[in-house]
Design a protein that fits this description.
The protein is an alpha/beta fold. The protein contains 30 helices and 23 strands. Strand 5, helix 4 and strand 6 form a beta-alpha-beta unit.
Length: 746
């Protein structure tokens, strides 16, 4: 009797599709409180739940504006999480409070700022939702340590439209919050299995305005400051600072690309710092950074301190003379550049003219102009304040021509109304000039035009800016984006565009690019060159292939024997569906051995569309044998956390000490210690979140007697090991289906 069942290719394809996608009976599950979830939100929630149940956590990295907050609450609902803690930036408290009310869900929120101060709730929640999780990309910060402790024994959902800010390690650090140090051994394909990118970021997203642009806005005036910036004498650091002249120069050039006002303000701050340095050095003292901070700069004058009081002695006469000469030379070069800037034409006039032109191009539409520096906002505000309908907003407050306003009253005009009076024409704001203080977490979809007055240091900020406007629920059909080009010479020095595109390539390899966020003349196709099939893109295309193969009433296959079919193809290979405890895994062989990577799967599925062909039992048995051999080879890696052991010194030290503790114990105690040693070994190889890994670090370093130490490690494992997470054990999976690809020549 054969160990498989022959079937039609359509039956096998349907089984692969329905098993991989999971149950699709969502009747009654698309409503959450008074919110009706969109199809992409229902789909993303189901996928995230499956990932969380398998791995202990997952990341929702949908583009900005697709309703990730409601998707996250749908995940909590499907997981039946009764105690939910939401970690959010303080600026998102009102938004999350409204969302919880709309969804009729209870949750406790704690701000990122409170977590930075070390505040960690004592109870273990059923689910931790970390919104704007890209703020947790640095494991060395106190905020990261607090969130890691919060997530140590809880399921985790990370939410960020832009999880990759600068490098691939940004994303890995976030996944490590629930996956532990094994995350650092993941390749790009592995990472894609932890991320739901969800709906397409292109122009065909249902309910989201079409994107027009980004369009480049070039300034007419030439701004030739680059020679003066390059000619500046090197700055002199404080006593406890290192010299980083190149970085300081980059900072000045970046401010120049934003506005003349931002550059002048930065130079004047340098000038004021020089006054403090000179005054202190003239007393024979070399100040530290903290001592220099005692001098204050108001924007117009330096508030003098008493250098004899605020700085300790620390420079001999020769050193003092050299330092004074260097500081004065730096001061002179700055003063000369400032004088040159005052005599020359001001490109900020041109920037204001360009913004006026955009207002004429979009009559009746609301425009938000973003920039990095408050000085840029103030410079444009000074030139546009008397135009009708203009407001400025920075961290220090909001202004219109009539005076100061509250931040809330300005933002109200850019937020969809659920009722209430319309804004009188005399009070209407059509142009809001603001810093990136508004670029995270706000719904400003009454606007339909976004202007990048400058380029930030990373493209994630560009995406966040546009995402405030281009959102679900917008009444606009199109959102238009403009980008004011930096001076060409500055771009050559900083390579701003090239740097942003390099970072985009990193983001695309792991989670996919969130749309066309950089302007022409360099099209996004160049960013994609050489990376046409990234892990995230392939995974989404894989799901599209499977969705297209799902029938309205798919047949279920509960037999223990695998379902097998064969089709003609342009290549020879096979696809296998593996199932275990409700989890489905696809592997494929297209000529280089079985592989679970999305790229291999896409190649195999694309080639698996041929017609049915007869296949011999011997060939089927041979393929099944190879599948089972692959499963056997994976047993060791799936049974213990080998990647985590390799990445964690504490785990290796713990395993070695367990062996030493047993060998040192008297013979009559070894039988008693053996169960403790087994439990300690299990803890050392168990799936652990990063917060638990840090607890293990402390335990391993403790100086306890052997038996007490074994008991502490065993108890640690009972508390922190994640049962079922990351190690379902592919060797225990069964082969549910195999689809053979037979080249027509064979």
């Amino acid at each position: 009797m054969s160990g498989f069942r022959l079937a039609s290719p359509d039956d096998v394809r349907r089984l692969i599709a329905t098993t991989t996608l999971g149950e699709r009976s969502n009747v009654g599950r698309n409503v959450l409180g008074r919110i009706e979830l969109r199809p992409h939100q229902v789909d993303a929630a189901e996928r995230l739940v499956a990932m969380i149940e398998r791995n202990g956590g997952a990341m929702l990295a949908e583009p900005v504006g697709l309703g990730k907050t409601y998707t996250a609450l749908a995940v909590a609902d499907r997981l039946d999480a009764r105690r939910v803690i939401v970690a959010i930036p303080a600026s998102l408290r009102e938004m999350w409070t409204a969302a919880l009310r709309d969804c009729r869900r209870d949750a406790t929120w704690i701000t990122h700022e409170a977590l930075s101060r070390g505040a960690v709730p004592s109870d273990d929640p059923d689910l931790v939702i970390v919104d704007e999780s890209h703020r947790l990309r640095n494991p060395a910060t106190g905020r990261y340590a607090s969130v890691a402790a919060l997530c140590a024994r809880s399921r985790v959902l990370l939410v960020s439209a832009t999880p990759v800010q600068n490098s691939r390690s940004d994303l890995v650090a976030q996944i490590a919050l629930y996956l532990g140090r094994a995350a650092w051994s993941l390749n790009d394909a592995d990472i894609a299995n932890h991320v739901v990118r969800g709906a397409d970021a292109g122009n065909d997203r249902h309910g989201v305005p079409r994107l027009s642009g980004p369009h480049v806005v070039s300034l007419a005036a030439e701004d030739d400051c680059i020679d003066g910036l390059l000619a500046l004498r090197p700055p002199i650091p404080a006593k406890d600072e290192s010299t980083a002249a190149a970085l300081l120069l980059y900072g000045l050039v970046h401010q120049w690309t934003s506005s003349r006002a931002a550059l002048v303000a930065a130079l004047e701050r340098r000038l004021a710092r020089g006054v403090a340095l000179v005054s202190t050095l003239e007393t024979g003292r070399y100040p530290t950074r903290a001592e220099l901070a005692a001098w204050t700069w108001s924007g117009e004058a330096v508030q003098l301190a008493f250098p004899e009081i605020i700085a300790a002695a620390g420079a001999d006469d020769d050193e003092t003379g050299e330092l004074l000469d260097a500081v004065r030379a730096h001061q002179s070069s700055i003063a000369a550049l400032l004088e040159r800037l005052r005599r020359g034409p001001d490109p900020d006039d041109d920037r204001a003219t360009a913004v006026r032109e955009l207002r004429r191009r979009h009559p009746g539409e609301r425009i938000i102009a973003f920039c990095r520096y408050a000085e840029t906002v103030r410079a444009l505000w000074a030139r546009l304040a008397h135009d009708a309908g203009v407001a400025a907003l920075t961290a220090s407050g909001a202004r219109v021509a009539g005076g100061r306003l509250t931040r809330a009253s300005v933002l109200e005009q850019f937020t969809p109304r659920r009722g209430g009076r319309e804004t009188p024409r005399a009070e209407r704001i059509d142009l809001l000039i603001t810093t990136d203080v508004l670029s995270e977490g706000l719904n400003l979809q009454e606007a339909s035009v976004v202007v990048h007055l400058d380029y930030p240091w990373n493209p994630a900020r560009l995406d966040q800016r546009v995402g405030r406007v281009r959102r679900l629920g917008s009444r606009h059909d199109v959102v238009t984006v403009y980008s004011v080009a930096p001076p060409a010479s500055a771009e050559r020095l900083l390579r701003i565009d090239e740097r942003l595109r390099d970072k985009l390539r990193i983001a695309q390899r792991t989670v996919g690019v969130a749309g066309h966020i950089l302007p022409s003349p360099i099209p996004l196709s160049i960013v994609n060159r050489g990376a046409a099939e990234t892990a995230s893109d392939v995974r989404e295309r894989l799901r599209s292939w499977l969705d297209s193969r799902e029938s309205p009433a798919p047949a279920r296959e509960d037999s223990a024997l695998p379902l097998v079919a064969a089709v003609t193809s342009d290549r020879t290979g096979s696809i296998a569906l593996l199932v275990q405890s409700g989890d489905a895994t696809l592997i494929a062989d297209v000529g280089a051995g079985f592989d679970a990577s999305p790229a291999t799967m896409l190649a195999a599925l694309t080639a698996a569309l041929g017609s049915s062909v007869v296949v011999s039992d011997a060939l089927v048995e041979a393929v099944l044998h190879r599948v089972n051999s692959w499963l056997d080879a994976r047993f060791g890696a799936s049974a213990v956390e080998l990647p985590a052991i390799g990445a964690s010194r504490s785990r290796r030290v713990a395993l070695a000490r367990v062996s030493r503790a047993l060998s040192r114990a008297p013979r009559h105690r070894r039988a008693i210690l053996a169960p403790l040693a087994h439990a300690a070994r299990s803890a050392a190889v168990a799936p652990l979140a990063e917060g638990a890994e840090r607890v293990l670090d402390s335990l391993v370093a403790s100086d306890l007697p052997d038996e007490a130490w074994l008991r502490s490690i065993a108890a640690f494992g009972e508390l922190h090991a994640r049962p079922g997470a990351r190690g379902h054990g592919l060797a225990r999976s069964r082969v549910a289906a195999v689809l053979l690809l037979l080249a027509s020549s064979g």
